[in-house]
Amino acid sequence: MSSPLSNDALLARLEGTGYVRVEPPVLQPAGVFLDVSGEDLRRRMFLTSGPDGREMCLRPDLTIPTARLHLGSTRAGGDAAYCYLGSVFRFRSEASAEFTQAGIEIFGRPDREAADAEVIGCAADAILACGIDDPLVRIGDLALMGAVIEALGLPKAWVRRLMRDATRGGTVEETLDALIASREGAERAAFLAALDGSHPEAAKAVVEDLLAIAGISTVGGRSVSDIAERFLDQARQRAGADLSAEKRAALSRFLSIEGTLSSSIKELRALQRDTGLAMGATLDAFERRADLMSSRGLTSDRVTFAARFGRAVGYYTGFVFEFHSATSLALGPLVGGGRYDTLMTTLGAPQPVPAVGCAFWIERLQEAGR
After folding, report:
1. Residue ranges of the chain whose pLDDT lies below 50
2. Is residue 123 located within the same domain as residue 25?
3. What is the DSSP letter of 199?
4. Is residue 306 included in any domain, yes or no?
5. Which residues line the annotated binding site?
6. Which residues form the domain of 32?
7. Shortest CA distance to 357 belongs to which of 172, 121, 103, 161?
8. pTM for the model
9. CATH of the domain at 111
């Protein structure tokens, strides 16, 4: 095992490969984290209020603060690459609520597969330099999952629900079973039926008015608008049809795919051929990324793909990955990241911005590298 890299040396290494160091503020507007982060992160945030009453939080990660910083910079219209090192804050029952993360983020790079390969390749190089000689690399692709779910011909409300749960670390089969088997009580069913027959904006206004009359402003970190949107989704889902046995079997076959990159690509191609599920350009991009990763030393035998793998963070939209130590699996992921192409418009960008990055859990790296 090699000698572990110090924090300063890690940051210098990232800067030396072309990433510009940034230091986003510790105090951040809470709204965006509540809107786009997964349930796991939302319930562990430290919330407070500013003098103007606006809800604020101690940053629970550094990706969103770095994205906000980029949008406010002169480089917002082009591509940029940043690195950082700093404290983040989350409630944790058995560990300190303050811990350290380093990371890299790439914005505006049009060649998505090349940027993905660069980020995971940089993570692999850094993790080896930190003294982790036995990394296990696990990847998934939410865009590929989305292509399969879209190809099943499900109602749009179902597709949104399935992808939302998959993006946030949920189980696709359980969500699908709930959508198919859901049965509301008479009053709830009548209410949802009325919503489904109304204009979306009018229906949303009705729900918001009812919640306001009840004195409800937020539930579990969700705004009244968020709650109203969930009711509308439920109303739309009532119109969904059952999934045929053939389509259910195709989805199960996709979700069962797990193995090396080369074996997974063969299985995905066979699935597309046998079932007619059109993964098309998304599968082509997956294969190209695998080739680019291999050219950076992440060969097929070093990487495990799992079709059902996701990360419990709500803003990921495509390629996702984690590194673990084979001898210290209990520590959890040492590095985690992925692609998040819709986050920037959520933050106020006038048009979609390709984005990908990863974060290093410094204390875990130090412990695993001992």
Report:
1. 1, 183-187, 239
2. yes
3. -
4. no
5. 61-63, 90, 101, 105, 311, 315-316
6. 7-140+315-368
7. 103
8. 0.81
9. 3.30.930.10
